[in-house]
Write a structure and sequence with these properties.
CATH class: Alpha Beta
Shape: globular
Number of strands: 7
Largest sheet: 7 strands, mixed
Strand content: 25-35%
InterPro entries: Acyl_CoA_acyltransferase (IPR016181), GNAT_dom (IPR000182)
Helix content: 25-40%
Order of helices and strands: EHHEEEHEHEE
CATH superfamily: Gcn5-related N-acetyltransferase (GNAT)
GO molecular function: acyltransferase activity, transferring groups other than amino-acyl groups
Distance between the termini: 33 Å
Organism: Prunus dulcis
Radius of gyration: 15 Å
CATH topology: Aminopeptidase
CATH architecture: 3-Layer(aba) Sandwich
Protein name: N-acetyltransferase domain-containing protein
Structural class: alpha+beta
Strand order of the largest sheet: 1-2-3-4-5-7-6
Number of domains: 1
Pfam family, one: Acetyltransf_1
Length: about 160
């Protein structure tokens, strides 16, 4: 695989184990234990209406985005993570843009996500790509951590 290419994870891929291992390590490093999908990652990937895109740099996962489409009308970005050393280089934006395009192929009308308001770079990225803040959900992550629920609507004529 060419360095820096965004790829959709495939269970039958020969590098499946290595990629999943890299993603689980990244998940554990970036997200608090109660927010991490590291323990249930395989189950999440087995869900019928979910997908995961990742980007490798120098043979290691630089970042990934997980998304799902629980209904024919809506989709959700469930995770977006970029390795510390790869931040501020456009990987997060490229991954999110690719996930939005994947969701659009499902003809959904809205994509939603939740983000900690204190994760300013993430909030700014979502806004840059057209997401709007719907509301603040107090205690979403834990009793002392809130979340913005954000959304991106698609024009039905597009």
């Amino acid at each position: 695989m060419a360095t820096g290419v965004i790829v959709e994870i495939q269970r039958n891929s020969p590098n499946w184990g290595t990629v999943v291992e890299d993603i689980v390590k990244l998940e554990r490093k970036i997200f608090p234990k109660h927010e991490s999908l590291a323990r249930s990652f395989d189950a999440e990937l087995r869900k019928k209406n979910s997908g995961l895109l990742y980007r490798e740099v120098d043979g290691a996962v630089a970042g990934y985005v997980m998304y799902s489409w629980p209904s024919s009308l809506s989709a959700s970005i469930t995770k977006l993570a970029v390795r510390d050393a790869c931040r501020k280089q456009g990987y997060g934006e490229a991954l999110l843009t690719a996930a939005i395009q994947k969701c659009r192929t499902r003809n959904v009308q809205r994509i939603t996500l939740h983000v900690d308001p204190l994760r300013t770079p993430a909030v700014n990225l979502y806004k840059k790509l057209g997401f709007k803040i719907d509301n603040l959900i107090e205690g979403y992550y834990s009793s002392d951590r809130n979340a913005y629920r954000m959304y991106l609507d698609f024009d039905a004529s597009q």
